[in-house]
Amino acid sequence: MQITQEERDSVYKTIFARRDVRREFLPDAIPDDVLKRVLTAAHHAPSVGYMQPWDFVLVRSDQTKARIKSSYLQAHQQATEMFASDKKETYQKLKLEGIMEAPLGICVTCDRSRNGPVVIGTTAKPDMDLYSTVCAIQNLWLAARAENLGVGWVSILHDDVLYDTLNIPQDISIVAYLCVGYVSQFNDKPELEKLGWLPRRPIDDVIHVDTWQPTPKEP
Ligand SMILES: Cc1cc2c(cc1C)N(C[C@H](O)[C@H](O)[C@H](O)COP(=O)(O)O)c1[nH]c(=O)[nH]c(=O)c1N2
Predict the structure, then answer these.
(1) Mean pLDDT value of segment 179-196
(2) CA separation for the pair 168, 173 (Å, rounded)
(3) How many whole angstroms from 46 Cα to the centroid of ligand 1?
(4) Ligand 1 centre and the CA of 148: distance in Å?
(5) Which residues form the Nitroreductase domain (predicted)?
(6) Model pTM?
(7) Is 145 in the pocket of ligand 1 (CB under 6 A)?
């Protein structure tokens, strides 16, 4: 099967128009068929040894979201103390989650023992199952964008709140908590770029031929 020019354009358009969403969520419900398409796209991600180690826990309860939000606030406060004084104030003002506003939360987990102790592709690099789960998340993020749904990844969270509120066994790894919903608008650029936190690095700074080269640590 060949991809046509028009189809190719749509893929690139979706990639470049995808954004991390925090503040623009609308309360509108996500139709079941749309959500199923997005999760099915996630489930068709590549995975090491075809392991498909992921699960998706859908979070709809406001009570559960409120517990996760309160854990976020704690982690966010702890994070504030870690930044150098010139960045601390800016960091504190950033909105870095839409936990309550988004109609849906999705906790993405990785069952590292789903296929027994020896899995093709993980024998030399054991974390490949976690990376596979991240591939599923990226598929989800792009499929959601193609459905005009926003996704925001919230990692300023300690996992214990998710283990506890979502009843996740301790031997399951938590990879992501995502906020998902329709949005009032998609930013044309990453918000952190717009706010002057960091610029996008030039593409040629990160492409190297034959040997790895350092790129500047700070822009
Ligand atoms: C693994 C991981 C974890 C996080 C993120 C991303 C990824 C990949 N991002 C989103 C991140 O800030 C964003 O992707 C970049 O700023 C680039 O913006 P766009 O995604 O292109 O809009 C993110 N954003 C946020 O507001 N709070 C968060 O906790 C996180 N955590």
Answers:
(1) 96
(2) 9
(3) 22
(4) 18
(5) 16-182
(6) 0.97
(7) no
Distance from the alpha carbon of residue 1 to the mean position of ligand 1, in angstroms: 34
Nearest-CA residue for ligand 1 atom 23 is: 153
Q: 27-199, superfamily in CATH? A: NADH Oxidase (3.40.109.10)
Secondary structure of residue 213 in the 3-state scheme: coil
Instruction: Give the Å distance between the CA of 20 and the centre of ligand 1.
Output: 6
pLDDT tens digits for range 115-153: 999 999 999 999 999 999 999 999 999 999 999 999 999
Q: Is residue 45 within 8 Å of residue 131, measured between CB atoms?
A: no
Which secondary structure element, helix H or strand E, spans residue 149, and what is its range? strand 149-153
**Nearest by Cα to 197 from 218, 176, 216:** 218
Alpha-carbon span 162 to 67, nearest angstrom: 9
Q: Which amino acid is at 153?
A: W
Q: Is the CB of 96 under 6 A from ligand 1?
A: yes
Tokens of 164: 């506890």
Maximum Cα–Cα distance across the chain: 55
| Per-domain boundaries in the chain | 27-199
Q: Which residues pair with 55 in a beta bridge?
A: 109
Do 175 and 109 meet the contact criterion of CB atoms below 8 Å apart? yes
Q: What is the 3-state secondary structure (H, E, C) of 32-63?
A: HHHHHHHHHHHHCCCCHHHCCCEEEEEECCHH
Ligand 1, atom 17: closest residue by C-alpha: 190
Listing DSSP states for 157-185 in one string gives S-HHHHHHHTT--TTSEEEEEEEEEEBS-
